């Protein structure tokens, strides 16, 4: 798969993007203090380079999201048809995801109440964002009636052209389920086509991300020109709030697995540590799978049959930190712009976050960051212009994304097992 081939290359790219962010801010601050050769003309060229790079990312969103959702829904339907254990696992995944979405809004909004963005900080970060004041769609108006009518777009092509992402998501999910009703000779080539579309879009995104140091440098230099180095404090605040939301989710997973997984808190905490260490070092749930299987069997009392089915299935279709982290980013951007998100927009964002969390499982972090978050922004009417700057510091939240996913995968396996955890084969096994 193209996504797996790109992971190692994109991981090393994170360092260069971070360097480009800092270099752009320092260069812009220096130019602000001592002048920029060419004056406003040079600044306009630099700004247009950043805008060009952002537009290149945005042009892949609709076809990529549609293709990923069709193939993701088809794969879930195929997994559900394999037996009762797989169906039970999918049910557990679904319930955990619903709980995660509810938690995401409460935690992120609560963190902003306790530790709000300073008005000066918001102004600094938005100082040079292209068209930052423009709301991307009409999601803010109409309340519940507008939300209900947006679920079924009368013209899917027009909805795509207007970035009416929620209607596209609903149509893609319905399309994916409809493919499961077709004969194999019709379904397989159709799903293969959309898989090919998704892979092609991922390749294009990869090409665009190869230019990320240039694009991020241009955007961050614009910020430095307008506001100096003050943006660093805002970016640090952003990282802290996204990480805190995910740490809270991980703690909540521990609280849930004890009663529903019928396992002691200490035993579960010790049992997941080796897999969490692998997740921390690799930032990949797939690379953590062997350690997860070993710990589930030897330390958590999960049978070989359950571990062998649930954990690979979890890596394939279940990523609990996706809606939490993605919604934390969207809510942060909304607060940057002073946008009020009411219950109707929470529903819109939650549904979109659930859908894209399934479709983007397994994508490299830099790819999934924009592909997952931009559709939620579009659905909730939140501008996407500052996302490239946030992408530059994603390497830190991404570590907690992976640790949370691995922890939730093992918790789900323990919950699916159902019976009381059996004793370890020998004292300290799997620790």
Please, could you describe this protein's structure?
- The chain has 431 residues and is mainly alpha-helical.
- The chain has a single domain (2-417), classed as Proton glutamate symport protein, CATH 1.10.3860.
- Helix content is 77%, strand content 0%.
- The protein contains 19 helices and no strands.
- It has helices at residues 2-34, 40-58, 61-80, 84-114, 119-125, 143-150, 156-161, 165-179, 184-210, 212-227, 231-261, 265-282, 289-298, 304-317, 321-337, 343-359, 365-380, 387-391, 395-417.
- Helix 11 (231-261) runs parallel beside helix 19 and helix 12 packs antiparallel against helix 13.
- The longest helix is centred in the first third of the chain and has 33 residues, at 2-34.
- The two termini are 33 Å apart.
- Residues 132-141 and 425-431 have low confidence and may be disordered.
Number of distinct beta strands = 0
Structural class: mainly alpha
Q: What is the 3D shape? A: globular
Q: How many strands, which pairing sense, and closed or not: the largest β-sheet?
A: none
Could you report the average pLDDT, rounded to the nearest whole number?
81
The parts where pLDDT drops under 50 for at least 5 residues are 132-141, 425-431
Distance between the terminal alpha carbons, to the nearest Å? Answer: 33 Å
Q: Architecture in CATH?
A: Orthogonal Bundle
Order of helices and strands: HHHHHHHHHHHHHHHHHHH
List the total number of helices: 19
Characterize the quaternary organization of these chains. single chain
In CATH, the topology is named Proton glutamate symport protein
| Strand percentage | under 5%
Radius of gyration: 22 Å
Q: State the share of residues found in helices, binned by percent.
A: over 70%
Number of domains: 1
CATH class descriptor name: Mainly Alpha
């Amino acid at each position: 798969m193209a996504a797996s081939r790109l992971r190692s290359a994109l991981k090393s790219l994170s360092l260069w993007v971070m360097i480009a962010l800092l270099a752009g801010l320092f260069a812009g601050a220096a130019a602000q203090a001592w002048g920029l050769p060419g004056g406003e003309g040079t600044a306009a060229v630099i700004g247009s380079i950043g805008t060009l790079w952002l537009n290149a990312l945005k042009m892949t969103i609709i076809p990529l999201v549609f293709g990923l959702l069709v193939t993701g829904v088809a794969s879930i339907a195929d997994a559900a048809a394999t037996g009762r254990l797989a169906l039970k696992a999918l049910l557990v995944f679904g319930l955990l995801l619903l709980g995660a979405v509810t938690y995401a809004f409460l935690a992120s909004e609560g963190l902003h109440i306790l530790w709000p963005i300073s008005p000066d900080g918001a102004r600094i970060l938005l100082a040079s964002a292209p068209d930052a004041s423009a709301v991307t769609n009409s999601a803010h108006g109409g309340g519940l009636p507008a939300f209900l009518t947006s679920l079924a777009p009368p013209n899917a092509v027009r909805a795509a052209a207007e970035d009416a992402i929620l209607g596209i998501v609903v149509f893609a999910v319905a399309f994916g389920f409809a493919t499961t009703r077709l004969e194999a000779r019709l379904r397989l080539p159709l799903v293969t086509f959309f898989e090919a579309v998704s892979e092609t879009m991922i390749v294009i995104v990869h090409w665009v991300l190869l230019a990320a140091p240039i694009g991020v440098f241009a955007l961050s230099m614009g910020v430095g020109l307008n506001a100096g180095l003050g943006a660093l404090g805002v970016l640090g605040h952003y990282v802290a709030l996204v990480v805190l939301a995910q740490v809270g989710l991980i703690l909540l997973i521990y609280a849930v697995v004890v009663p529903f997984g019928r396992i002691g808190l200490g035993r579960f905490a010790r049992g997941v540590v080796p897999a969490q260490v692998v997740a921390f070092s690799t930032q990949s749930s797939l690379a953590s799978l062997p350690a997860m299987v070993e710990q589930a069997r030897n330390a958590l009392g999960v049978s070989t049959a359950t571990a062998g089915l649930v954990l690979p299935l979890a890596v394939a279709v279940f990523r609990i930190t996706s809606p939490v982290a993605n919604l934390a980013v969207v809510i942060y951007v909304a607060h940057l712009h002073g946008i009020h998100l009411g219950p109707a927009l929470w529903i819109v964002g939650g549904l979109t976050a659930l859908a894209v969390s399934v479709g983007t499982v397994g994508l490299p972090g830099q790819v999934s960051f924009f592909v997952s978050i931009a559709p939620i922004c579009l659905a909730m009417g939140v501008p996407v212009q500052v996302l490239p700057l946030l992408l530059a510091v994603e390497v830190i939240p991404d570590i907690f994304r992976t640790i949370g996913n691995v922890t939730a995968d093992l918790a789900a396996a323990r919950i699916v097992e159902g019976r009381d955890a059996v004793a370890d084969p020998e004292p300290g096994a799997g620790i």
